[in-house]
Design goal:
GO terms for molecular function: ATP binding; metal ion binding; protein serine/threonine kinase activity. Its EC number is 2.7.11.-. The chain is an alpha+beta fold. It has two domains: 182 residues, Phosphorylase Kinase, domain 1 (2-Layer Sandwich), CATH 3.30.200.20; 238 residues, Orthogonal Bundle (Transferase(Phosphotransferase), domain 1), CATH 1.10.510. It has twelve helices and 15 strands. The protein has a six-stranded mixed β-sheet with strand order 1-7-8-6-3-2. It is globular and about 65 Å long. It starts with 6 loop residues before the first helix and ends with a helix. The relative contact order is 0.11. The protein binds adenosine-5'-triphosphate (ATP) and magnesium ion. Adenosine-5'-triphosphate (ATP) binds next to strand 2, strand 3, strand 6 and strand 8.
Length: 431
């Protein structure tokens, strides 16, 4: 791990961070209270407050580990330290991510104490970490450390200001910004959408080995399994579309939709994470002829990048819709859409220039077929907005949810999302 970063680089990095947060989004939204946890520093005799457990996953430059204990150094004097006894009774005992007390804490010290006391969740199978730490991998090259630290800092800035039930919660920071011990303390997720897609594929295969061959749309799987999977897929797709609607409403683009960047919490609710490529669409980036924005070419992960982004034309919100269309196709077909095109030249030739898309299963509900074909339309002007997608998927969710539990859940999620729009709209009018 590279330990020293030059003064010159730190100046440049700070300028980049200031640039990334200069837009309206950061002026009109308020950052939540985000406490910092010490990471060990022998030279300054600071103890590491976080005990890390197993690796939960890794990306290109970062790794995510569970936090198995938070042992506070006593450095919060004067910051309104509270003991658990000060917390209202409904916030004691077993709580999880969704129950993290809202609008209750007055200081970062209170949050640190709460998180330290509630770091583990006990259930019938043992105790599990509630929080995870995202930090740089130890063996990155100098260039990757520098880029990774800037991405991680930008991600922290966006996450501190984003507020939606289907977006991962940033609960804290760790270490010193722009040093290799910097990290993000996040709610811990239990499986990624990629893992869930593997599970759906296995369920589908099981159904086929029982002689009930078919896929999600074909009606040949036993009806209960097929409908159960359809409800799960449409529920996740609906929640993701609501999160994306909220992100676009803030005039941000996410730019990294893929099954590895969404996951499920302990309740099975989907969350988008990995905001390293998130970007505000500021007016200086606007390209009048296209109505899109001058943004870095090929940002994202190849099999989900929209043609206009891939070939270096201006792009914007419709690029996220394209990625969503690919992802939805994959969730419904239990396959990767462009797995056979790993070479950028082939992707350019087939997907970008010749409009190749895999066939959509004709026995899927018609509304879902239309959503996919419109979302990955080669012409970005014809793609639906996430506002429209969220409405259509909400209707589809009601149609496919026949049992009362699913219906109740879909009502709850519709309500949760509606509430977050109201909170957001209120905020906008107050600034
Ligand atoms: N909160 C979390 N809880 C559990 N696992 C997580 C969490 N966040 C991320 N992960 C796991 O770690 C992996 C890497 O995380 P993330 O995508 O944020 O890192 P990254 O380095 O920015 O990735 P990328 O290569 O996509 O840029 C995820 O794909 C997932 O498997
Ligand atoms: Mg990722």
């Amino acid at each position: 791990m590279v330990e020293t970063l030059s003064e010159e680089w730190i100046d440049k990095a700070q300028a980049k961070l200031a640039n990334a947060s200069k837009g309206n989004f950061f002026q009109t939204t308020e950052a939540r209270l985000i406490p910092t946890f010490d990471r060990g520093d022998d030279a300054a005799a600071i103890d590491d407050e976080l005990t890390l457990g197993k690796i939960l996953g890794e990306g290109a430059f970062c790794e995510v580990k569970e936090i198995s204990a938070i042992k506070l150094n006593n450095n919060d004097a004067g910051d309104g330290e509270v003991t658990p006894a000060d917390l209202p009774s409904e916030h004691k005992g077993d709580t999880d991510e969704a129950d993290f007390p809202v609008n209750l804490f007055q200081s970062k010290a209170e949050i640190r104490t709460y998180m330290s006391d509630n770091c583990l969740r006990e259930d019938g199978t043992g105790s599990h970490s509630r929080y995870a730490l995202k930090q740089l991998k130890p063996n990155n090259s100098q260039k990757h450390v520098e880029q990774g630290l800037i991405d991680l800092s930008i991600e922290a800035k966006f996450l501190a200001n984003l507020n939606h039930p289907s977006i991962i919660r940033l609960r804290g920071l760790s270490g010193t910004p722009l040093t290799t011990n910097f990290g993000l303390v996040l709610d811990r997720l239990y499986m990624t959408l990629e893992d869930q897609m593997d599970a759906w594929t296995a369920t589908k295969k099981d159904s086929m080995s029982n002689g009930l061959c078919g896929c999600l749309g074909m009606g040949k799987m036993d009806e209960e399994t097929r409908m159960g999977m359809l409800v799960s897929v449409v529920t996740a797709a609906y929640d993701l579309s609501c999160a994306m609607r909220y992100i676009h409403d803030q005039n941000l683009v996410y730019r990294d939709f893929k099954p590895e960047n969404a996951g499920f919490d302990v309740r099975g609710d989907v969350k988008i994470f990995d905001f390293g490529f998130c970007k505000e669409l500021t007016t200086d980036l606007f390209d009048k002829p296209s109505g899109q924005y001058k943004l870095t070419k090929r940002t994202g992960s190849q099999p989900y990048i929209a043609p206009e982004n891939f070939v270096g034309k201006p792009y914007g919100k419709p690029s996220d819709v394209f990625s969503f269309g690919v992802l939805l196709w994959e969730m419904l077909h239990c396959k990767f859409a462009f797995y056979h095109l790993p070479n950028p030249k082939d992707y350019t030739d087939l997907v970008c220039n010749r409009d190749f898309r895999p066939a959509i299963d004709k026995s899927l509900p018609l509304r879902l077929q239309t959503i996919i074909s419109e979302s990955w339309d080669p012409d970005y002007r014809k793609r639906p907005t996430f506002k429209r997608l969220a409405i259509q998927l909400g209707v589809e969710l009601r149609d496919v949810s026949s049992d009362q539990d699913a219906l109740n859940r879909s009502e709850q999620m519709l309500d949760k999302s509606a509430r977050s729009f109201r909170v957001n709209a209120k905020k906008k009018t107050t600034h």
